[in-house]
Amino acid sequence: MKEERRRPNGNFRPERPEKKERPVRTAYEVRPEPKEEVEGQLEGRNALQEALRAGRTIDKVFIAAGDTDRALQRLAAEAKDAGAVVVPVDRRKLDNMSFTRSHQGVIALTAAHEYSTIDEILQEAAARGEDALIVICDELTDPHNLGAILRTAECAGAHGVIIPKRRSVGLTATVAKAAAGAMEYMKVVRVTNINSAIAELKEKGVWVFGTAAEGSVPMYKANLAVPAAIVIGNEGDGMSPLVRKNCDVMVHIPMKGKISSLNASNAASILLYEAVRQRLG
User: Fold this and answer.
1) What stretches of the chain show up as alpha helix (H) in DSSP?
2) What is the CATH number of domain 118-280?
3) Closest Cα partner for 42 from 154, 169, 151, 172?
4) By C-alpha distance, which of 56, 76, 45, 38 is closest to 186?
């Protein structure tokens, strides 16, 4: 039994129980990082809208319950008409499901994206009556970079993008978000070996242009109006030595500032639009 304290007037009072420390509450809670992304999840209204327009099969759509936004309701109705199961869920569930952290009240689950072949890319170019324009991504790991490259490639009229199966990001939700719908229209080939893909392209008359700061040819002097594949290297190390060796021409982007390198997606954009400029004459 605890001792009693004497009050100043001589009376006794029981000892008060010690106060328990309350947990400190912060202004916000940091969500745990989501698991590794898987293909087949689309996040955001634009990604779902473009998938529906392209005729992609949507299996299930999770939509924020109670959201009265008419545009979101119309999108959900369109997905339902296309055969998707629409499930209203609490926004907290959407937050936990989201990889992009910007789901805009809707997440869709689809079958894994269907990849194309090199022949299909070349057939697309032939069908348009154009010389092939292809981007080869040599082990890009940042989904935002790949998404941005897909977006620029589609806008520039490129016929396809080639990525490796290993040590590279695939067509995930973050890639789809960054691509802003372009993933639904751009042919993407996923190959086991980039060097084998380069050899196949060469056999079919495509010139392969590697990109590096020390490239011997300025991009303005490289003939990108021919059937061309532009290789973009890894964000950290650039192109692998063997890929570099297998390129027909090594080009560089003239740099006038104090920084000596560009982001992978920025470099791809500059080179793609140099190809567009040359092809327009």
Assistant:
1) 45-53, 70-81, 91-97, 118-128, 143-155, 173-179, 194-203, 241-246, 264-280
2) 3.40.1280.10
3) 172
4) 56
Mention the CATH class of domain 41-110.
Answer: alpha beta
Write out pLDDT tens, residues 89-110: 888 888 888 887 888 889 888 8
CB 231 within 8 A of CB 247: yes
Residue indicated by tokens 């997606």: 265
- Domain-wise residue ranges, the chain: 41-110, 118-280
Q: Which of 83, 84, 64, 82 is nearest to 72 (CA)?
A: 64
| Ranges under pLDDT 70 in the chain | 1-38, 111-112
Question: Which residues, in sequence order, are CB contacts of 255 under 8 Å at separation 6+?
Answer: 213, 261, 262
**C-alpha dihedral sign at 205, 211, 212, 218:** positive
Pairing of strands 106-110, 58-64: antiparallel
> Are 198 and 207 within 8 A, CB to CB?
no
58 near 112, Cβ under 8 Å?
Answer: no
d(CA 5, CA 2): 9
Phi/psi of residue 244, nearest 5 degrees: -60, -45
Distance of alpha carbon 178 from alpha carbon 97, whole angstroms:
18
pTM of the complete model:
0.71
